[in-house]
């Protein structure tokens, strides 16, 4: 297969993990089709801006911005229901309140439809099992079963491999790998609740800051004092 025909759909939230996964896809010689989801998350505008900046950095020509309004209808997550507070006291036990029901399953299903249409060979998603906040849709086993279901439910000629290059990395390894590949981390956004300056206290900010600290590096984004 020549390089030009090697296509990958990259689910790109604008966060550090999905951005690194997209840079890895580029390094592996894939032509990237970027997919971003606006699903009523608190930092929707900031994440969309991050996605667009990263698409420019990667010189991506083909991109999709998909609206999924129903997550706010069902609520059940602090990310999509403003009546539920974002936890700021450290990582919770079990599945945290920031978990959005079956989000990655839904994202992968939509991205697979796009991959089938675009005749892409791979689908990149920046899930992290070891260092994630305990989300059930970020595990190797889940991705493996989704791959089987997707290939079972698409055309015979459609063969999609779901690639999770970060699944076994810790956050400091993600920071180091990002720096090694010159990923523009200043364009990424991880905060669950703020769009101007990152809060620094939500689970996602804590994981990110801890990763930079362990990697002996300074996070280039702005945080509240």
TrEMBL record:
Q: In which pathway does it act?
A: Purine metabolism; 7-cyano-7-deazaguanine biosynthesis
The residues listed in the UniProt record as binding ATP, with positions renumbered to this chain, are 12-22
Give the Enzyme Commission number. Answer: 6.3.4.20
Determine if Nucleotide-binding is one of this entry's keywords: yes
Q: Which InterPro entries match?
A: QueC, Rossmann-like_a/b/a_fold
Query: Which principal EC class is assigned to this enzyme?
Result: ligase
What molecular function terms (GO) are annotated for this protein?
Answer: ATP binding; ligase activity, forming carbon-nitrogen bonds; zinc ion binding
Instruction: State whether keyword ATP-binding applies.
Output: yes
Q: Which UniProt keywords apply?
A: ATP-binding, Ligase, Metal-binding, Nucleotide-binding, Queuosine biosynthesis, Zinc
Task: Extract one GO BP annotation from the record.
Answer: tRNA queuosine(34) biosynthetic process
* UniProt-listed Pfam families: QueC
Q: Copy out the cofactor comment.
A: Binds 1 zinc ion per subunit.
Residues recorded as binding Zn(2+), renumbered to this chain, are 191, 199, 202, 205
- What is this enzyme's catalytic activity, as reactions? 7-carboxy-7-carbaguanine + NH4(+) + 2 ATP = 7-cyano-7-carbaguanine + 2 AMP + 2 diphosphate + 2 H(+)
- Which cofactor does this sequence's record say it needs? Zn(2+)
SUPFAM superfamilies assigned to the protein according to its UniProt record, in alphabetical order: Adenine nucleotide alpha hydrolases-like
UniProt similarity note: Belongs to the QueC family.
Q: Which HAMAP family does this one have?
A: QueC
Q: Tell me the function of this protein.
A: Catalyzes the ATP-dependent conversion of 7-carboxy-7-deazaguanine (CDG) to 7-cyano-7-deazaguanine (preQ(0)).
Q: What is this protein called?
A: 7-cyano-7-deazaguanine synthase
Record the organism.
Halarcobacter mediterraneus
The top of its lineage is: Bacteria, Pseudomonadati, Campylobacterota, Epsilonproteobacteria, Campylobacterales
Q: Which gene encodes it?
A: queC
């Amino acid at each position: 297969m020549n390089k030009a025909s090697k296509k990958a759909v990259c689910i790109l939230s604008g966060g550090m993990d999905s951005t690194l996964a997209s840079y890895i896809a580029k390094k592996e010689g894939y032509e990237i089709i970027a997919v971003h989801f606006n699903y009523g998350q608190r930092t929707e505008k900031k994440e969309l801006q991050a996605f667009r900046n990263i698409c420019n950095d990667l010189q991506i020509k083909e991109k999709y911005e998909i609206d999924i309004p129903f997550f706010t209808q069902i609520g059940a997550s602090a990310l999509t229901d403003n009546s539920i507070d974002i936890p700021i006291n450290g990582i919770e036990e079990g599945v945290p309140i920031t978990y959005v029901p079956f989000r990655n399953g839904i994202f992968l299903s939509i991205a697979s439809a796009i991959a089938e249409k675009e005749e892409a060979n791979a689908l990149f998603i920046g899930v992290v099992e070891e260092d994630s906040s305990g989300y059930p849709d970020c595990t190797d086993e889940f991705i493996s079963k989704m791959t089987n279901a997707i290939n079972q439910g698409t055309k015979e000629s459609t063969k999609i491999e779901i690639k999770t290059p970060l699944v076994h990395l810790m956050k400091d390894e993600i920071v180091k790998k990002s720096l090694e590949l010159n990923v523009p981390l200043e364009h990424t956004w991880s905060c669950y609740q703020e769009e101007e300056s990152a809060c620094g206290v939500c689970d996602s900010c804590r994981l990110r800051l801890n990763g930079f600290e362990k990697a002996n590096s300074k996070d280039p984004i702005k945080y509240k004092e």
